[in-house]
Specification:
The complex is a heteropentamer of chains A (368), B (98), C (119), D (411) and E (177). Chain A has 368 residues and is α/β, with parallel strands linked by helices. Chain A contains 9 helices and 20 strands. In chain B, strands 1-2 form a two-stranded antiparallel sheet. The chains are: A alpha/beta (368), B alpha+beta (98), C alpha/beta (119), D alpha/beta (411), E alpha+beta (177). The interface between A and E is large, with 44 and 46 residues. Strand 3 of chain B pairs antiparallel with strand 16 of chain D.
């Protein structure tokens, strides 16, 4: 098979994108890694807690350290990493439209495109949510852990999934107070070990509770909370007020599918994985065969699963470009898939495993 | 600001009431709501409000969230300065194939 | 350039159990509404302003105050007028020495030629 | 399920909706059908200008005059604001050659009753303070106007709905059959319509619909790419076109292109620009977003925008308005304007198919002519004499040589 | 917080409602050592009662006293006979769910992970807290260690009155002066 000389273009240098690029380069395939930020690593640099998983998933290592390691690895391999480069368009013929440093727009023709564009944070609207001081959890994480700035002194966290609980812990670590973590559902969402460490720091966690209003003139001064009924509607008479100067919203993530949609990838609605996401097969190929989707764009999970998905796609793309024979591709992906399976178990993981199986089946049905 | 005003589209300051009114007036898709109310027409192009509008639409029409048709997307997916548009191809990767 | 008092970095996280002490960085001077403040080279305008305790970055057409929301260039809540150019996403635009950052009301206004040249 | 009505209007673009509105207003029962949603075609992907100046003296200009009057009425009559506004229009002139052509064009327009003047650079700068010094003069017409196409469609829809309109979205007509003096339309949704008359207002898809009857109309999609900027402080008073664009509009499609414009890198780029049918149309909307157009391409039904064409549009607007350099665009779109070989729409009953009417093929004039199109189409449906002679728009001008017409009609 | 030792029933489940497990919940999971055991030797308490994919406690243990096995979502199982209470599992646990408790006469001793600044110093008087963050009793810091291999998770040892041994899990955060 003749080897493809046009590069594989990886969009997004988070854990999934870095791993995809590393596998491509390792196989000798030409690869370009583009990221809109001035630092690669994606969300890893906001993750300062030790990761779960096993040793082969880098368990016990802090997210930003994994980011540094992946970066070092990609630099050692000589991967062409273009930072400050926003990919703003993509067409079905794999023409990538990029803007460098917000100053120079150019197009390039890729032979494969691996989309590792991550996810966008969801919002929950309430009167006053446009006030200064209301922000997404990711915004607070970026400010605290990347830029070392405290976005509030006394903070309410809305949402008790892992992101909400982790941001509460990070706020405490940065010296803020957390007035409460609230959750509209009857049960807290995040890992019990995460909630327990935040709770023992004295942070109240309130289930069946919602925010009905934020008040203040030039910024948040108070949050008004209320209990909710079985239909998530506030129960009259249960209102209470918390004095806070910031509110962090951690109410889930939605795959960032814009580029995939522009490329013509078919999407599928999977609530467990964050909503509309591109269909993909076991090698992370979308319905457009030369376009792969990895990490949160392919269903919101965790950095550890994102890395394995990136590897799967990188290995398969290298094979499809003529840089790895089938046997070697299968050998390398078998390991990856075993590790991925290990991560998708237990009360939290199994649901995602089942949902992913549905995605694969749908892909098989829609584009055999 | 009215303290009970619930904005859905932060960019264009479109309220929940305006969106529900549009749906009750006959708008049945995210696209139509967008055109009638400007929700999602602002500088972020619906990146924050799109899902919220889909949810309200599902609620008003009695649909499951997945049954609301997903919105369409247009490039660019980030704001781009006019000055940056020299339109050239990237010389370093312009392969012969293709 | 002005006698306006300097804004100090009241919200800087200088010590951290996991991230360690804040490393020294080259100082960059920027001006917010005519008041000087010192920023860390390479950081976005937004973080320099939040560090300096700036609470309102702009007002919308309807007059409501805004600061930031996503912090990563998606939502564009934090747009300001930078060196005379309105609509700049301050969360993804790095500080530069001498940069002048201003709140904008609604869509802002066109800077006069001489203001732009001064940039 | 069968839905019965007086008239089926196919296509929920601005002209279909105007027609539906007008018929509902006159007390007829109407079913409006679209294979997508409201304004999914050219009507939802265009700018907001009602530019009289761009029209050649003749029936289209007359109808545009009438539309302007109707827009003024509609502004009060429709249940929502349509952001109709008369801010005037200018056509920027850069070279003495362009000036000569425009002086001649303007003279003909004035003779026809459209007051257009040529203003010098100084006066132009009062209207457009940010325009480049390279512009030596411009035309100015106080009557050029704007309307928000999205709100216009919303207004037609709400107005018609109040009078009992039935609207079927995502319904594609799969067959059209004359039966006992009425029409039976089978839809992709499984529903059947039974109506006395049918109006085909499906724009660039009008030929596809007529094809169900074995008819072929040379109505072809012509793609126009447009950039949308972030909201800006106001730049100037008027809508803006370039004389270059008018010159290219005056020239029949397919003839040789003008030389390189001053902002182009050279002849190669001029060829590229000509390939895209590049023109210049620049307008600020009520909300402060500016629309920068446009290309005029024969690209089939492909609605993609491409960075090359967008780059030309971007550089062109910076050339005319240097202040735009730092402005961001947040969105791009392409509309498929329904074009015809003679530049005239197709409006009228199709011979051999009583009760089947065409109202399509307006290319770039769809919004501007929508109020009058709705009026005359409704007149035709009701069997009344329209207020304008529709001679130039007769469908049969394109049907000569389609010998199977009679056969199709009887079958 | 008084816990009725006779009712380790599931009404006391608080992990998913209050954020921290109740003592009853922990007892039901079998991760709470008895007073006798704590008086006999320092006891590792792995307050990890939810199946998540994680096993660094297993790999950190030089004695092989902690087992997760396959699949890695198994809950860790502690073999107290093998455990030497070396404490390596405390900073190894990404969930900060491991503490070591012991009883000596009227005093209880706890070793727990700590990732906040300002950190406590040896000899400092601190306030011990329960799993919900409520202050329980005063305590004295006996030692603070944070070698490089801990990767910035300090391990604090504190003493406090023995009667609170079951409730206490950590100390109250300090603030900068």
């Amino acid at each position: 098979m003749e080897r493809e000389t046009r590069p594989a273009v990886v969009v997004g240098a988070g854990p999934a994108g870095l791993c995809a690029a590393i596998e491509l380069k390792r196989a000798g395939a030409p690869v370009l890694l583009l990221d809109e930020n001035s630092k690669p690593g994606g969300q890893l640099f906001k993750q300062i807690h030790k990761f779960f998983g096993s040793q082969e998933h880098r368990a016990g290592v802090r997210g930003f350290e994994i980011g540094k390691d992946l970066l070092r690895e990609s630099l050692d391999l000589g991967i062409d990493v273009r930072l400050d480069t926003e990919v703003v368009g993509l067409d079905p013929n794999l023409n990538v439209w990029a803007v460098e440093a917000r100053k120079r727009s150019y197009t390039l023709e890729a032979s494969r495109v691996i989309l590792a564009t991550g996810a966008t944070e969801n919002a929950v609207p309430f009167p006053g949510w446009t006030l200064p001081g209301v922000m997404t959890a990711g915004c607070a994480q970026t400010l605290i852990n990347v830029h070392r700035v405290l976005p509030g002194r006394r903070v309410l966290v809305v949402g008790s999934g892992n992101v909400g609980v982790i941001v509460a812990y990070q706020l405490l670590q940065a010296g803020a107070e957390v007035a409460a973590v609230i959750e509209a559902a009857p049960a807290l969402g995040g890992y019990g070990v995460h909630t327990a460490k935040v709770r023992r720091a004295g942070v109240p966690m309130l289930v069946r509770t919602t925010i009905v209003r934020a008040e203040g003139s030039e910024g948040v001064e108070r949050a008004v909370l209320a209990e909710v009924d079985g239909k998530f509607k506030p129960v009259p008479g249960t209102e209470r007020t918390l004095e806070v100067d910031a509110i962090c919203l951690a109410v889930g993530l939605t795959p960032s599918i814009e580029l995939a949609a522009l490329a013509g990838c078919r999407t599928f609605f999977v609530p467990e994985l964050g909503g509309h996401m591109p269909l993909h097969d076991e090698f992370m190929r979308s319905s457009v065969p030369a376009v792969y989707v990895v990490g949160d764009i392919a269903g919101v999970e965790e950095a550890s699963t994102a890395m394995e998905e990136g590897r799967l796609a990188g290995i398969h793309a290298a094979h499809s470009m003529g840089y790895l024979d089938r046997e070697e591709m299968e050998r390398r992906t078998a390991d990856t898939r075993r590790r991925l399976r290990a991560l998708r178990q237990g009360v939290f993981g199994e649901k995602r495993f089942v949902a992913k199986e549905r995605v694969l089946a749908e892909k098989e049905k829609e584009c055999p | 600001m009215d303290r009970d005003e619930n904005y859905i589209c932060r960019c264009e300051e479109v309220t929940e009431d305006e969106i529900r009114t549009a749906i009750r007036g006959g708008a049945r898709s995210v696209k139509e709501i967008k055109r009638w109310t400007r929700s999602g027409m602002g500088i972020c192009q619906g990146r924050t409000c799109r899902r919220l509008v889909e949810r309200i639409l599902a609620e008003e029409l009695g649909l499951a969230p997945g049954e609301v048709e997903s919105s369409s997307f247009r490039p660019p997916v980030r704001p781009v300065s006019l000055d940056s548009m020299d339109g050239s191809r990237d010389p370093s990767t312009h392969g012969s194939g293709g | 350039m002005t006698d306006a008092p300097e804004l100090s970095a009241v919200n800087r996280v200088t010590r951290h159990a996991v991230l360690g002490d804040l490393e020294a960085a080259r100082e960059v001077r920027i001006w917010f509404e005519g008041r000087p403040l010192s920023a860390r080279e390479g950081e976005p305008i937004l973080s320099a302003l939040v560090a300096a305790g700036v609470g309102v970055l702009r007002h919308t057409k309807k007059g409501s105050p805004r600061r930031m929301f996503c912090g990563i260039g998606r939502c564009t809540d934090c747009v300001m007028t930078v060196d005379g150019v309105p609509g700049v996403r301050t969360c993804v635009t790095a500080v530069r020495d001498g940069m002048r950052v201003e709140r904008q009301a609604g869509v802002g206004r066109w800077a006069r030629e001489e203001e732009r040249d001064g940039a | 399920m069968t839905i019965r009505a007086d008239t089926a209007v196919l296509g929920a673009g601005v002209n279909g909706m105007s027609t539906a509105y007008e018929l509902c207003r006159r007390g007829r029962s109407v079913v409006l059908v679209d294979k997508v949603v409201m304004g999914a075609g050219a009507s939802g992907s265009c700018d907001d200008m009602i530019l009289l100046q761009s029209k050649k003296p003749g029936i289209l200009l007359e109808m545009a005059f009438r539309s302007l009057e109707l827009f003024r009425d509609l502004q009060g009559e429709l249940p929502c604001d349509i952001e109709f506004d008369t801010r005037g229009g200018t056509i920027l002139i850069e070279t003495p050659e362009e000036l000569a052509v425009m002086e001649d064009f303007v003279a003909r327009q004035n003779k026809y009753g459209l007051a257009v003047e040529i203003v010098d650079a100084r006066r132009l700068r009062e209207l457009q303070p940010h325009v480049t010094d390279r512009v030596i003069a411009s035309t100015y017409s106080a009557r050029d106007s704007q309307v928000n196409p999205m709100l216009l469609m919303k207004g037609f829809f709400l107005g018609a709905s109040a009078k009992g309109l039935t609207f079927l979205r995502r319904s594609r007509p799969e067959s059209l059959t004359p039966r006992n003096g009425r029409w039976e339309i089978k839809l992709s949704t499984g529903e059947t319509l039974e109506t006395g008359t049918v109006v085909n207002a499906t724009g660039a898809w009008a030929n596809e619909i007529s094809g169900l009857l074995g008819l072929r109309f040379p109505i072809a999609p012509r793609k126009g790419q447009v950039l949308v900027t972030e909201q800006l402080p106001p730049l100037g008073e008027t809508n803006v076109w370039s004389a270059q664009y008018i010159v290219s509009k005056l020239r029949p499609a397919g003839t040789s292109a003008p030389g390189a414009a001053s902002w182009m890198s050279g002849p190669e780029e001029a060829r590229t620009a000509a390939g895209y049918g590049l023109g210049f149309a620049f307008t600020g909307t009520h909300s402060g977003n500016y629309l920068i157009g446009s290309t005029r391409e024969n690209a089939g039904y492909d609605k993609a925008t491409d960075p090359e064409a967008l780059g030309l549009l971007a550089r062109q607007v910076i050339h005319y308005f240097p202040v735009m350099k730092d402005v961001h665009f947040i969105r791009t779109f392409a509309g498929l304007r329904p074009s015809t070989p003679d530049g005239m729409p197709v409006i009228g009953e199709v011979p051999g198919f009583p009760g089947f009417f065409m109202a399509a093929g307006h290319e770039g004039d769809g919004i501007a002519l929508s109020p009058i199109t709705g009026r005359v189409a409704a007149d035709l449906v009701e069997g009344r004499k329209p207020e304008f002679s529709l001679e130039s728009f007769r469908p049969e001008r394109f049907l000569e040589g389609q010998g199977d017409l009679d056969e199709a009609a009887s079958g | 917080m008084p816990v009725n030792p006779d009712s380790p029933d599931l009404d006391e489940r608080t992990l998913k409602t209050l954020g921290a497990p109740s003592l009853a919940e922990l007892k039901a999971a079998g991760v709470v050592p008895s007073r006798e055991e704590m008086a006999a030797r320092p006891c590792v308490c792995v307050e990890c009662i939810e199946e998540i994919p994680c096993n660094p406690c297993e790999t950190s243990c030089p004695q092989g006293a902690l087992t997760v096995g396959q699949p890695i979502t198994n809950l860790p199982v502690l073999d107290r006979d093998k455990c030497t209470a070396c404490g390596l599992c405390i900073p190894a646990c990404p969930g900060l769910a491991v503490v070591i408790k012991s009883l000596e006469g009227n005093l209880a001793k706890i070793r727990f992970p700590w990732e906040y600044l300002p950190g406590p110093a040896k000899g400092e008087e601190v306030e011990m807290v329960d799993r919900l963050g409520n202050p329980v009793c005063p305590g004295t810091v006996v030692s603070v260690i944070n070698p490089a291999r801990n990767n910035r998770t300090a391990v604090v040892t504190a003493e406090f009155p023995a009667e609170h041994v079951d409730e206490v899990i950590s100390m109250r955060r300090k603030t900068w002066p």
